[in-house]
Amino acid sequence: MGLHEVEWQPIDLPTRLVALITNNRVWRSIFRFAYPSSDKTRALIIPAVFFLHIHPLKVSARSIRLTYTWGLGLFLFFLFGIETVTGILLAFVYVPDVGRAYQDVETMSTTVAFGALLRNIHRWGAHLMVLAVFLHMMRVFYTGAYKRPREFNWVIGVMLLLLTLALSFTGYLLPWDQLSFWAITVSTNLAGYAPFIGESLRVFILGAKEVGQEALIRFYVLHVMLLPLLMSVLIGFHFWRIRKDGGLAASNPLPRGSQAVRREGAEVPAAGEDDPPESAEGVLPMPGAEARQPQAPAGARAAVARKQTLSTWPNLLILEIIAGLFITAVLVLMSMAVDAPLRNLANPDITENPAKAPWYFVNLQELLLHMDAALAGVWIPALLVVALMLLPYVDRDLSHAGEWFGTRKGLIITIWSAVYTAVWTTALIVFDEKVGVRSIIGDPAIMPNWVIPVGVMVGLSAILYVSILPLRPSRREILMAYFTAFIVVYAQLTLVGSFFRGIGMHLVKPWNLPPGGLSF
Amino acid sequence: MGREETEERGFLSRLDRRSFMAYGLWAAAIALVVEGGVISVQAMRALPKTAAFGSKFEAGKVSDFEVGSVTYFLDGRFYVSRLPGGLLALYRKCTHLGCVVPWRPDEQSEDNLAGSGRFNCPCHGSRFDRHGVVKGGPAPRPLDIFPIEIDGDKVIVDTGTIITRASYDESQLTKV
Question: d(Cα A462, Cα B158) in Å, to the nearest integer?
Answer without folding.
Answer: 52
